[in-house]
Amino acid sequence: QVQLVESGGGLVQAGGSLGLSCAASGSIAAINVMGWYRQAPGKQRELVAIITSTGSTNVADSVKGRFTISRDNAKNTVSLQMNSLKPDDTAVYYCYALLHVTSVYWGQGTQVTVSP
To answer: Bridge-partner residues for 93, per DSSP?
Structure first.
């Protein structure tokens, strides 16, 4: 079992920046991948960025060059720095963890709202 607690998010104007952080607790040694997904109203949850324990990343094309994902294995945290935000980035952002390659865990979600 893993518990994920997110922090950050909020309201920002277009072009601004926000940071998200997620702290993991529990069976953290078994975590293979951590990252972020997001879900906008009326849309499916989509990948934003993920990072493995060795630092390999997969970043969605829609945010590439604007968002940066990082992971601190010692602190069991994953962070997402979001720059040049657009109204289309408005969504609930969920922290994600994959254990033992098959078990998925989610945080409670944090709202990011980008005003025009």
So the answer is: 38, 110
**DSSP 8-class letter at 54:** T
C-beta atoms surrounding 63 within 10 Å: 23
Instruction: Please report, in angstroms and rounded to a whole number, the separation of the first and last CA atoms in the chain.
Output: 40
Tokens in use for 108?
């409670």
Q: What angle do CA 19, 34, 92 make, to 5 degrees?
A: 50
**28 three-state secondary structure:** helix
- What is the DSSP secondary structure assignment for residue 53, as one 8-state letter? T
What are the pLDDT digits (tens) for 7-54?
A: 999 999 999 999 999 999 988 877 889 999 999 999 999 999 999 989
Q: Is the dihedral of CA 10, 104, 56, 60 positive or negative?
A: negative
